[in-house]
Structure formats: structure tokens, C-alpha cells
Write the C-alpha cells for this entry.
Amino acid sequence: AEEEEMRKHVVLTKPFSLDDEKDSEHTTSNLIQRILSLFKNVRPGSDLTNFQLPPQLNLPGSQLQCYGEMIYGFNGPDFLGECGRRDKPIERLKAVVTWNISTLRPLIFGMAPYNPVVGETHHVSNGHINVLISHHPPVSALHATHEKENIDVTFCQYFTPKFRGETYEMNQPRLVMTFLPATGAHWAGKIVIKCPETGLEAELQLLSDSFLSRFTGNNKRSIKGKIFESSSGKRLYEIFGHWDRTVTAKNLKTGELEVIYNASENIAKLKTPIVKNLQEVSESESALVWSEVSEGIMRNDWEKASKGKRDVEEKQRESRRQREVSGFSWIPKHFSVVRAGKEWDCVPLQPTVPRAPIVVPL
């Protein structure tokens, strides 16, 4: 009965999308008020050994949910599935570029999701896409499969999607936070997508959303790049636009222009996932682990949120103490996780991700 009661507190939140950016909860003035609230609990000589980020500066969701939303959080075309429906290698790479752009999401300066705890998982399905994320300190591993197009995506510090026997290796952009002359958080840097089997490559540059760039031109969230042959360097397409608006590809042979991505169709008005099968929700599910914290944040009940956060962190510490006493190491349930030099290698233990008890409604 006690276990069933706990299972009832699965709290799911709406993914952050384009239409949420003007939310008054996330304005700079509101953020400053929240930061100032920190000082109410800190006094000269206070013991900061176990100081935690207050829930006032948390988004109501785990970092694992943020990772997962990059894959399942869309409300338009199935760009991941499209990568398997193209016949020509150049069209497949162009589809991978489009899907990669679709994973970019707006950022909220000064607000952070919860740091996941060891063994925490997040399992959600959207259409034919099934996503499973698991936390293995210091890394998180993601596995997503597409039931219809035989597509496999793994994530461990970097993306390694695989389509139709071809491997696409790609990195992620940098997260940049600025404080002066204005606060802000944005994506910047170069994304490189390579396909060793076809010898095709794409480079995308996310232009800095700095004060200077905004003063000199409309570069906010702009993107430009190219698709080319790796061996010869021959340019095949130019890519340009804004990842929160539209992105266009220009065929350099024919001059044809094609809008390959429209953000308003894909990451606006995102739907909140729902629990389809309560009995199958794992005890390690993010929406269950952090339910009390999320509930408190959404109701502005900061006492409840703070208590919930302390409970999660104390349970984590107690679990670690028990493992140390018993001499047992924690073993990941869904992935094989090994250190490979300075990097980490995460391999799913199952070939496909099963349907999740939590789904994105149609």
C-alpha cells in the first residue's frame, strides 16, 4: 500500500518551448528576486558543507528529462524518422542536419534542472520513438530507437546516431552564459556531423548571441554552415537561418532553396507527457524521484520543494553509505559504462528501447 501510494505521485511537466519564453516566472527581475532569497538562509559563519541550490532556482524537472526532450519533445514532423526514409546519402545527411538543429532548445539564464541521482532513469515514448535515459555518475547515457525506421541513437557525452548501417558522429554546441552588460544564456560554437561510410560531412556554426553581435546585426540564434565532401572539400549545400525560426539549405549546383526546418512547427506548444501505465513506471523514474520537488515549485510552495529536495539528496547519501559499508559497487541496469581514456563509452544492454509507460499524447 505504501509503495502504491508513492507511485501516485508521478509529476510530469510540460517541456520548455518557444511559446514559454515570455513567461513572467522566468524574467530577469523575477530571477534577481530569487537569487536575493539565497541570502535569507545564509549568515556569516554558516556551515555550507551541505549547502544546496534552493528550488527557487530550479526548473521543475531533472536534467535527464531535458536530455530526453531533445529527442521526444516535438510537436510537428518526425525528423528522426525522416533520416531513415531518404534514399540518397546526401539527402540522409541533410535529414540528419535538420534533426540535429531540431534538438536545440531555448535556455533560461540562472535556472537549472535537478542534478540526477545515481540510477535515476527517464523513459518516454512519442509515436514510434522510444527514449530511455539513465544516470551513471559522472555521465548520463541515452538510448532511443525508432520502431518503424530501424533508427538507433545513443548519447554519452556526445551523440552517435546510426541510420541504415551508416554512422553519424556529431558533437554538441557550447553553453555560454553572460552576466554583463546583460544576463543571458545561449548556444554557440561549431557542430560537426560526419558520416565515415559515405564521406559526407556537415559543419554548422551557431553564432554568438553576444551584446556586440546584437548591436551590429540580428544574429540572435542564427546558424550558418555547409554540407561537403570530406575528401575533396567540395561544397554541396549552404545552410543558413535561425534555429528558433527557419533554416534554409541552398543546393550549390542548382541554386534551389529549401526550408529544411521550421521551429514554430516543431518546438512550439509542446505537450506534457502523460502516464499511460502507472504500474510499469520505474521506481527510478525522474518524474517520480523528484515529484515532491516539482510539485512544490509549480505551486510556489518553497517549503515543500526544499523538503523534497533534502529528502532526495539524503536518500542518495544514505544509499552511498550503505554501498561503502557493504563493499558493493553500483552496477548500471540499462547500459555498459566504461572509461575510455578521457572519454566515456556507454553501450545499451538491449538492442531496442521498449515502449514506455509514459507517453506524449497525440
Observations:
- The two ends are 32 Å apart (CA to CA).
